[in-house]
Amino acid sequence: MRETWAALKRRVRFDGEQNHTGPTPMAARRDALLAAAHTITAVREEAGLHGLQMHTSVGRIEVYPNSPNVVPSRVSLLIEYRSRDVELLRVAAERLDASLHAIADKTMTGFEVESSVLRAPARLNDRFAGLAHAVGTELGLSTTDSMTVAGHDAISLNRHYPVCLLFIPSSNGVSHNEAEYTSDQDMRNGLRMLTGLLYRACASSVAFR
């Protein structure tokens, strides 16, 4: 891996009014979860505007009081946008801001953006990547350059140290799932690749920075 995508991550909280779901008229409800649901849809629709250039998700919802017969009074969402293009993320953030105001008005709720972090795309160490290709050739393994959309600890380390990411095949590209599977042979090849790369890096007189 030579490059990473940028990512915009926001934590948004909606505030409504806690009330009984039985007698409270629908038109009078200030339902924070309803506001959150509209937001989730808006975030997904944003990705649809950009095809393969953007991925979005809402991976966590925190609902209070989280009772089946109580209108939720507070809901927090963890929202994520990913793209190679930082400008696309800025435009998406502006549209999200507009959507949040419109959704809050529609649902009679309030909202607050509790945190917002933009992680810029990163270029990993080219010499390290070149050395990885050389090691793969020596071992008779096929290698290719790619770009990672996912975030990794290495991205943070990249600001201080030379970094290279090695990936081995996962069946059907499945990850973060119980069905994730990599063959024993691919894992052995990955270990050989990593060991060879570390040996060559330690033995090399070439500075990576």
Automatic annotation (TrEMBL):
<dbReference type="InterPro" id="IPR010158">
    <property type="entry name" value="Amidase_Cbmase"/>
</dbReference>
<dbReference type="GO" id="GO:0016813">
    <property type="term" value="F:hydrolase activity, acting on carbon-nitrogen (but not peptide) bonds, in linear amidines"/>
</dbReference>
<dbReference type="InterPro" id="IPR036264">
    <property type="entry name" value="Bact_exopeptidase_dim_dom"/>
</dbReference>
<comment type="similarity">
    <text>Belongs to the peptidase M20 family.</text>
</comment>
<protein>
    <submittedName>
        <fullName>Allantoate amidohydrolase</fullName>
    </submittedName>
</protein>
<keyword id="KW-0378">Hydrolase</keyword>
<dbReference type="Pfam" id="PF01546">
    <property type="entry name" value="Peptidase_M20"/>
</dbReference>
<dbReference type="InterPro" id="IPR002933">
    <property type="entry name" value="Peptidase_M20"/>
</dbReference>
